[in-house]
């Protein structure tokens, strides 16, 4: 499947951000929003966002070049005409998803991929009965996708493997970082991660352990400086000379204590340790971990300097 | 209390990192480790770490300047002599903490603050019966403290308010970001945050939802780019035109769903919303939120460019 023409339905924060992702990748993008006011203000809104993110353009490109690839259409039908890839970005209501995917079914041919940017609903909840269901897939980003690369790709059991493969490769081609969600679960994985951290922050706040400012600082002046460069698992890999296996064998009980406190079984098990060892040792051998620690430390220092340069716009 | 002379007991990753924090702040630091091998290798180890972090030195300072303020002592007594602030950084065992704090009690005078870098044990668990208990306080950093500023300060109920105040101001003076843990709980708050996220990552991994690499990317190619600059709460504040109050009134149920799934009561309540509104609106008024969003976006773009420059040392 060659993807060159994109249609986007819904022009809110996510829809207009996806338009930027696609247009700056050299693709033609047609956007439809059922609200005429949203349509009339859209090109100006996108133009401003393009100006602010021009550092991420391909070499030599200008806002005008990228903007020229985007059109706003007055009907869904016009937007979908000739589209290879449709990205639904409308309101997060199950009934609305059902309605618009029935429209997609009626208005698109068998070669068109039908993606939803839903953050909550697996495709099976709204497209199971449609003839087009093999072409339907979740493509859910972090917000906003034109700045944050990670993007969840969650096929339904009935999604065609070729549709999954083409979507995954397409996201890579657009400079995103696609991740494969292997089973359909409500809210997928990305939002679960954020919620797990936020819930614990709320708990500490509600128990009076810390102020809101202080619990934020734990991340923005602490772990966030590491996590900008390293996922938490590969970060843990650097905490012992023997890598993540040694760390978890020594300190995995801390995570199991937390899991047990939350009512779960142990999460650090021989199986999960083996998985994580395979993952980390394929990245970098044990005898080079010191090199990675030095790289991490230099990266954190560079980030601290960047943060000093950026300053703050807060009043206090 | 004027703090100019520091003693550190224990020269592992954390102890030697604290030595760097203090010495580069212009303070004299005496380090003792009960293991002679650790002592003999210490200056070379610290010298290397200083070379690698010289970007964080005060203007005009060299590794030699900073290193000249650090001495390694052959006895605990020698290290403690004349110290205004003692930082215990020995092994994480309760019995060992008890033993060394009894030594501190015997060897230090009433003007010396006795800090522990423990990640697990509230001071009440090991210093309640000592005459020095008013001078005892937890000062627990993210690892390593010479790179990550956030530092938990947790007094015991019997810790002197002047000891708390002096310790807090001292950390600020050393360029750290102290946060006040208001009640003694095992493992404090910092490690709970990390564990909450890691446990959810393990759960998604163990349920076969994602690969280890993909769950790491959710952070390092997603939320981590925001959290490098903004705590999660102030990040959420930017997700609605009406700030965090509006966001939580509309979407707080997502966090409550997660909390309920974990067996907790609702975490988003009128009380927590009010707390967070006070916090965020003191930072920046609603009509300036757009300015902060633009600042965030430019910061993320600058970080993405930094990450490109830094590359990776991974083999795959």
What would you note in describing this structure?
- 2 copies of one chain form a homodimer.
- Chain A has 316 residues and is an alpha/beta fold.
- Chain A has 2 domains: 5-180, Rossmann fold (3-Layer(aba) Sandwich), CATH 3.40.50; 210-310, N-(1-d-carboxylethyl)-l-norvaline Dehydrogenase, domain 2.
- Chain A is 50% helix and 12% strand.
- Chain A has 12 helices and 8 strands.
- Chain A has helices spanning 13-24, 36-52, 63-67, 76-80, 94-107, 161-173, 190-206, 212-227, 232-236, 243-261, 270-283, 289-310, and strands at residues 5-9, 28-32, 70-73, 85-88, 113-116, 136-141, 150-155, 177-180.
- An 8-stranded mixed beta sheet of chain A has the order 3-2-1-4-5-6-7-8, with helices on both faces.
- In chain A, helix 1 packs across helix 2 and helix 10 crosses helix 11 (270-283).
- The mean pLDDT of chain A is 96.
- Chains A and B meet through strand 8, helix 7, helix 8, helix 9 and helix 10 of A and strand 8, helix 7, helix 8, helix 9 and helix 10 of B.
Q: Which terms would index this structure?
A:
homodimer, 316 residues, alpha/beta, Rossmann fold, N-(1-d-carboxylethyl)-l-norvaline Dehydrogenase, domain 2, 2 domains, eight-stranded mixed beta sheet, 12 helices, 8 strands, globular, oxidoreductase (chains A, B), 3HC_DH_C (chains A, B), 3-hydroxyacyl-CoA dehydrogenase (chains A, B), 3-OHacyl-CoA_DH_NAD-bd (chains A, B), NAD+ binding (chains A, B)
Query: What structural category do the secondary elements of chain A indicate?
Result: alpha/beta
Q: Name the helicity range of chain A.
A: 40-55%
Annotated CATH architecture of the largest domain in chain A? 3-Layer(aba) Sandwich
How large is the count of helical segments of chain A? 12
Q: Biggest chain pair contact, residues each? A: A-B, 111 and 111 residues
- State the CATH superfamily name of the largest domain in chain A: NAD(P)-binding Rossmann-like Domain
Give the CATH topology of the largest domain in chain A: Rossmann fold
Strand order of the largest sheet of chain A: 3-2-1-4-5-6-7-8
- Arithmetic mean of pLDDT of chain A: 96
Strand content of chain A: 5-15%
Domain count of chain A: the total is 2
Distance between the termini of chain A: 52 Å
Flag low-confidence runs of chain A: none
* Rg of chain A (C-alpha, Å): 22 Å
């Amino acid at each position: 499947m060659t993807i060159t023409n994109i249609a986007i339905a819904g022009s809110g924060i996510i829809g207009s951000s996806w338009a930027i992702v696609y247009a700056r990748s050299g693709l033609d993008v047609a956007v439809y929003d059922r609200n005429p006011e949203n349509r009339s203000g859209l090109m100006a809104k996108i133009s401003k966002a393009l100006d602010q993110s021009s550092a991420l353009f391909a070499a030599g490109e200008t806002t005008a070049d990228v903007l020229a690839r985007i059109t706003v259409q007055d009907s869904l039908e016009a937007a979908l005409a000739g589209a290879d890839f449709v990205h639904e970005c409308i309101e997060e209501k199950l009934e609305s998803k059902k309605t618009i995917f029935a429209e997609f079914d009626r208005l698109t041919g068998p070669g068109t991929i039908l993606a939803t940017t839903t953050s909550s609903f697996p495709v099976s909840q709204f497209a199971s009965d449609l003839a087009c269901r093999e072409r339907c897939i979740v493509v859910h980003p972090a917000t906003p996708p034109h700045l944050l690369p990670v993007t969840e790709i969650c096929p339904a059991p009935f999604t065609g493997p070729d549709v999954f493969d083409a979507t995954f490769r397409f996201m890579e081609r657009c400079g995103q970082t696609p991740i494969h969600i292997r089973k359909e679960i409500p809210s997928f994985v990305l939002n679960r991660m954020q919620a797990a951290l936020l819930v614990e922050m709320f708990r500490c706040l509600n128990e009076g352990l810390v102020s809101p400012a202080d619990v934020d600082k734990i991340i923005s002046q602490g772990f966030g400086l590491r996590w900008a460069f390293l996922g938490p698992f590969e970060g843990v890999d650097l905490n012992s000379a023997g890598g993540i296996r040694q760390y978890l064998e020594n300190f995995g009980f801390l995570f199991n204590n937390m899991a047990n406190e939350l009512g779960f079984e142990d999460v650090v098990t021989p199986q999960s340790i083996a998985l994580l060892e395979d993952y980390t040792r394929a990245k970098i051998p044990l005898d080079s971990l010191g090199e990675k620690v030095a790289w991490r430390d230099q990266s954190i220092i560079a980030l601290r300097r960047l943060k000093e340069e950026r300053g703050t716009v807060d009043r206090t």
